[in-house]
Amino acid sequence: MTLARAHTNIALIKYWGKKDARLILPYTSSISLTLADFYTDTRVTFDPTLGEDRFTLDGTILPTTKVTPFLDLVRDLAGRHQFASVSSVNHVPTAAGLASSASAYAALALAASRAAGLRLAPRELSRLARRGSGSASRSLFGGLAIWHRGFDDATSFAEALPAPKLDLAMVVVLVSAKAKAKASRSLMANTVATSPYYPAWVEHNQQACERMLQALAASDFERIGELTEQSAMQMHAAIMAGDPAFTYFQPETLAAWQTVQQLRAAGVAAYATMDAGPNVKVLTLAAHVPAVVAALTPQFAGRLLTTRPGPAATVLED
Known about the structure:
Layout: E1 2-13, E2 18-20, E3 25-26, E4 30-46, E5 54-57, E6 60-61, H1 67-78, E7 84-91, H2 100-115, H3 122-130, H4 136-139, E8 144-147, E9 158-160, E10 168-173, H5 184-194, H6 198-217, H7 221-240, H8 251-265, E11 270-273, E12 280-285, H9 289-300, E13 304-307, E14 314-317
Parallel strand pairs: 5-7
Antiparallel strand pairs: 1-4, 1-14, 2-3, 4-7, 4-8, 5-6, 8-9, 10-12, 10-13, 11-12
Helix pairs in contact: 2-3, 6-7, 8-9
């Protein structure tokens, strides 16, 4: 039995689109920030008395449609055949665009591999987590991480990045905690297949990764923020241009973005980003958090969370 915890991450330079859906190989590299206040705890027990895998999420028994194929990968690596009991608790709204799948599969990868007797190196563990959810490869690492797009299973992995000399912080604006109108995987495939903007997004986003690495190395927060906003807006533009047209933006989403732009015009270092969902995340510096919260509170009172860079995935019990 192993109990592991992994935190969510928010991509500053986005991942959107798979060139290999089975191996989950992305069209572009991506760069993310792991968050301290959203995480998943997962316990995995391999039990020879079980006749099938079992899975509970937040105390509710669920089908093992997604869990069993992932456990099969672990069983193949470990050379064992027992079924497993998996119990997860999400400390993050599920399917609301706050990267719950990233923390979920990162925690599952760490807990299942350790429970199966494996001691995988960080690169191999990130490759395993990637097979559950691409962004999970990054949630194994604390702070900033890069997921290299690679060319095959062996070369597509994540690794930690050096921390810039900046006191980073993030304010999460919870526009909606409801399940998303469209799941990321299906919409991602539709964007790749039908959006006329997608090829241009791939080219520019890959270049943006290189620019972001330079900005992080220089601790240039203004450039980091600009690249973060551009990557998010360009990803959502590609989504909107798909067939059928679709957007995750809600009226309050736009209101939050406009507030961030007004803050910046007033001299507050703040930049907005979004993943696949309506919720807005505001990248800022710790010194500016009070100003960001004060500006957003009139419309989003009770729906704001301030967080900081989070830790790497860890084993809680083994």
